[in-house]
Amino acid sequence: MNVFNVRCIRHKVDMLADEHPKTMTDEEYLQSEVLSHVKREYIDGRVYAMAGAGPNHNRISVNISSEFQRHLKGMPCETYMADMKVRSGNDYFYPDVMVDCASLERIGQFTTSPILIIEVLSKSTRKNDTTIKLMRYINMESLQEYVLIEQDSVCVHVLRKTNNWLSEYFYLGDTVTFESIGLSLAVEEIYDRVDNDDMREFRQQKQNLPD
Q1: Is CB count within 10 Å lower at the N or C end of the chain?
Q2: pTM to 2 decimal places
Q3: Side-chain half-sphere of 40: how many Cα atoms within 13 Å?
Q4: What is the rounded distance in angstroms from the CA atom of residue 36 to the CA atom of residue 50?
């Protein structure tokens, strides 16, 4: 079976999972999630299987989480990437990157106190990331910043509690300041190694610049 067929089958399975989400209590979800081979999010009493992330998605998540980890070394706040759940109300999500300042002993299987959440947008997650998750996240008492990052183009969308959750957008040539942890990153750093039209054009322009 070739790679294309495998991807098609996985996509079909994900589509079916979303079309027929399983209903269960949050306690049943937490118990079953420990044994699940696939990460699943829990929204309004239903369980949704998460689709696998592509190369650009992973590159952006790794770029950010590695910079965050380096910056927060020796500090009480910690960076989590993809495998730590966050609970908002009765729902549970797996943010792509998250910073939390609670101790590991207090966090356990999930956290309720993130100060910064980042989601990398894709076709399969965009709707939830920009609607359901946005509303759940910004209503969390602890959250200071919610960041949405495009992977097929270059755009960083930042919402901050200090700015009444109004949208700010950053592009190539800009610097994004993550106020909640006191770190600034150039948009170019966030998109290091990412392969999309914007980044290919940007790299080509840099190569053509005179020495």
Answers
A1: C
A2: 0.86
A3: 26
A4: 12
